[in-house]
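SAMPLE LOG
Freezer: B-3
Tube label: C17
Construct: single chain, 212 aa
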Amino acid sequence: MHLVFFTDFDGTITEQDTCMAMAEAFARGNWQELELQWQKGELTTEECARETLKLFDAGEEELKKLLTDHVTIDSHFIPFVQFCRQKGHEIYVLSDGYDYNIETVFDKYGIKDIPYFANRLIIKGRKFDIECTHSSRECPRCGTCKAELMEKLKPEGALAVYIGDGYSDLCAAKKADVIFAKGVLLSHLCREGIPAMAFDDFSDILKWLNRR
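STRUCTURE (predicted):
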């Protein structure tokens, strides 16, 4: 059967959440309260991000250095990509984070030709902003509506596999045929009684693929 993988980026492909790393490094103010309001659903991704970005004291050079010097990826992700390409399995990255971060990290590791969907990070001098080009008209909660993207991208008859760890993955995971989850996502799915396979890193997904 044809497999198509939909994977989160921050905290799933990367060892660190790049949005959190940005806030910790550059925000001059109480960004933690904004994050808490987002987790509670009191702020949308766009609202939370825009207010957090207003607190930043940095420019593109500092951001690129942070991402290049301090962000690492799951050491099993590239072997996973290579396996999928050998077998003809599709991979899409769905992120409620930033396109700039994905591009910079992928470039660091020489990762090419993986389609991704994320919020646009706008950088003008030392000012940052967000543009949500993949949001949903029906539900503004996330900047990137992963559930709608999955419905559009999944080929007819394919088995959809979702891989994620956070709040923005919950709706998308429910659209999948197979779920690999950890962190907040795994906790939510367990509470709702939705079957999911716990994973630590992409080696667990490679093992599942090899068993198939």
